[in-house]
Amino acid sequence: DAKTTQPPSMDCAEGRAANLPCNHSTISGNEYVYWYRQIHSQGPQYIIHGLKNNETNEMASLIITEDRKSSTLILPHATLRDTAVYYCIALNAGGTSYGKLTFGQGTILTVHP
Amino acid sequence: GAVVSQHPSRVICKSGTSVKIECRSLDFQATTMFWYRQFPKQSLMLMATSNEGSKATYEQGVEKDKFLINHASLTLSTLTVTSAHPEDSSFYICSAVAQGETQYFGPGTRLLVL
Q: Which of A5, A32, A34, A41 has the highest number of chain B CBs within 10 A, making it the mutation to test binding with B?
């Protein structure tokens, strides 16, 4: 699976959009980009995923560059409850590593009042 | 939808005893479940992949005889930490695959071995 690179930490003001970047320059054609977040002492929460096209759901938007080498997770109106560690993961859709999520260090997002 | 539960949420046991952790998919059937471990201030590390009706596949460095995994049904997988020692104290998290590739995680089980 492709390695992903994220900034170790970011801050955001409550009510503003939080834009979390992720680099995955070695991503292959059959690897999805998945985003999870982990609030302290809880299991990871699925946010969103995509392959090529931009995606949006009730939690966030995912913008994937045309060359697929990077992506941005957007939380449109961050709240204090969005403070968490955010993980960007490239997941192989098939093969022997199918389904195996490799968690990096993620980005610690702190939302300030 | 896609809710995964774990039981217990936390457990304290004496060194040398065995502890069983249950992982259930509550509103979907999961042919595959995963077990992760997370030490303080570290990221999640995959321990094993559990497929219903077959033996689990363990990651390199994870002792299969120490961490027994049973996936008896499409909604239940169990992890038993045998002869637990203080170094096994950790946050154990399971996940289950719902539709397609998306994994949904349980809330985790905090194990403290005294």
A: A41
